[in-house]
Amino acid sequence: MANWDVIIAGAGPAGAATAKRCAEHGLKCLLVEKAALPRNKVCSGMIMGRMAQGAMADTFGEIPVSVLAAPRYLEGYMIHYPGARKQPVRWKTPIGWRKDIDAWMVGKAVEAGVELWQETRVTGVVESESGYTVRVEQKGQARDVAARYLVGAEGADSTVRKSLFPDLEVRYVQNYRECHGDTKNNFDDNYFNAVFMPASGLSYAFAVHHKDGKVILETGAATGKVQQQREAVREYMASVFGFDAAAKPLWRDACVMALLLRGLIKGEFRPARNNALLVGDAAGLVMPLTGEGIGTALKSGLIAAEAVISAASSGSFAAGLFLTRLDAIIHLLDIMYTRVRSIDTGAMGAQYVADQLGQSWQATLEAS
């Protein structure tokens, strides 16, 4: 059975950042990824806001032009709310496909000395006094690997989280995406267009942006409600934005998002135990309103790396330091969540709501 200092499950932004930083400090790191890279990911591919852009630059350097899509940068975000003027939120934002961005970050981690196992799925975790035995499956074959430290970064449906917290009740929503060719619409292709509908409350009902000559539609709904939401969105787009309701997408895909934010804010869910840590989507670290998760993924991954590095030199558990530093992110999410929920959608009229949504969106971009 192979032995490592730290095993990181999941080769997204959180996993790549954790692995790279640990390897740079001399730790023997294994990064396991269930898919073959580059692999698709349901995500806008925007590096949005101060937190994401700062952590990306500090950890991986400037994103190469070859990794970005066309246009390489969006001018910002356009907030649409029925009965109100459009609200532009200007913020230069790099954009690409996550398959390319993630592969680039993982490549940087490998250059730093990380060993990468692709097409390797974590199927279970056993904790002992000496660390963790991780059962993985490679091409239908099971094997065990062991490490003193374990980081779960494998997304919303994290096997590491389920192993550590088997009694945790998790609600999920489904994120849905479809890609169209040069389809008729009235959206500004220099912006990420977030469309709010009163029935969706203070979460945007859907978003549209342009990338590499394609039109990307993203929406989400409770499990089992995606088809109904998709039809309502396409009808609304046709009636308001000139979209061809009969247009057939080039492709479509979906993923799930774990709704853990309230538990994090209330302290009911603490995403670490002993020397096992959860980061990014596995910990439910997603920005309210915007749904942005790359910044919180990168930052939580770097905090996890710092905790592991410190624990490896001191012999203490990594969870204590990790949770202490993670509380700053959770506090920030609480502030953003409270701000958005305080918007009165009924008393002040549509323009007031649109203004408040634009200001709150700006605040999330400025958060670091």
Report on the architecture of this protein.
This protein is α/β, with parallel strands linked by helices. The protein has a single domain, classed as FAD/NAD(P)-binding domain (3-Layer(bba) Sandwich). It is built from nine helices and 15 strands. The protein has helices at residues 13-24, 49-60, 98-111, 159-164, 226-241, 261-266, 294-314, 318-341, 350-366, and strands spanning 2-9, 29-32, 68-80, 87-96, 115-117, 120-128, 131-138, 141-152, 171-180, 191-195, 206-211, 214-222, 251-259, 272-273, 276-278. The strands form two sheets. Strands 1, 2, 5, 6, 7, 8, 14 and 15 form an eight-stranded mixed β-sheet that branches. Helix 1 runs parallel beside helix 3 (98-111). The longest helix is centred in the C-terminal third of the chain and has 24 residues, at 318-341. The protein is globular. The mean pLDDT is 95.
Topology (SSEs and partners):
Blueprint: E1 2-9, H1 13-24, E2 29-32, H2 49-60, E3 68-80, E4 87-96, H3 98-111, E5 115-117, E6 120-128, E7 131-138, E8 141-152, H4 159-164, E9 171-180, E10 191-195, E11 206-211, E12 214-222, H5 226-241, E13 251-259, H6 261-266, E14 272-273, E15 276-278, H7 294-314, H8 318-341, H9 350-366
Parallel strand pairs: 1-2, 1-8, 2-5, 3-10, 8-15
Antiparallel strand pairs: 3-4, 6-7, 7-8, 9-12, 9-13, 10-11, 11-12, 14-15
Helix pairs in contact: 1-3, 1-7, 2-7, 7-8
